[in-house]
């Protein structure tokens, strides 16, 4: 597995992150050995980033036990925001009180004295972003957090936060965590370009769209056991994209899951898919996506099946850039970043 730098930092992170949300429940006597085997398989493949959250049930506790004796070998990331006590109005949100108490709980549960990457789990519209950024910076200065990121927030608030951090000498967000897959490409409108402009790493959750792109779904067959998706809720578009993924997988000698995960990486060098699994076999398959390189024709086939439109202002600006009447003939011939409107430099 290859490594990249986390945002504009010097921290080396693997191209695939491991999602430990599947450790939500400690389970029976066979569960912990299976969890340990999964973590071992990820480490053996070269992976070093583990993603969890304070709200992921017993995941932090399980990880704390599994990481005993090898904690420093991993980049441990966790999140705060979601409620610790639904009856306490201050037990949730991005304000300083919840950050401090949530962080102390996570440190205790993970059996560590520092968090490598601490994420704001969700934008809290009731807390000023200045308060959140200053509180995060204080945690960094105290040595309890090394780097910070934000998950599930609009591009404008992330831009405001990082600009504010730059002005005031606070720790900026090095990472952005968002949902991203062939069926859900919304981040290409604002969030992904914003992250690339700020040099942020993008942790992409749900790269298999809840299992829809794993190869289990076609019009002709029912999914196997273990899927969380209701087949009756799938649209013709869902099935069309799933079939395109299966077709590309067959052509490349890969699995559908590997193709779907590889596509998220092909869109931008900033993207790090978060791969999860229910067992070692499934995780090993998903980790194989690191070795899958999609040809341009395969990417075009996959994206044509999705039918995605960037919407305003992205599509309008792209049209204007291609029109000599707007910026002149020389500029119109340049295309967008990377050689064409809407195309990422990584492509």
TrEMBL record:
GO terms for molecular function: oxidoreductase activity. One of its GO terms (cellular component) is cytosol. Gene3D superfamilies: NADP-dependent oxidoreductase domain. InterPro entries: AKR, AKR_Detox_Biosynth, NAD(P)_OxRdtase_dom_sf, NADP_OxRdtase_dom. Signal peptide: none annotated. It holds the Pfam family Aldo_ket_red. PANTHER family: NAD(P)-LINKED OXIDOREDUCTASE SUPERFAMILY PROTEIN, NADH-SPECIFIC METHYLGLYOXAL REDUCTASE-RELATED. This is Oxidoreductase. It comes from Planobispora longispora.
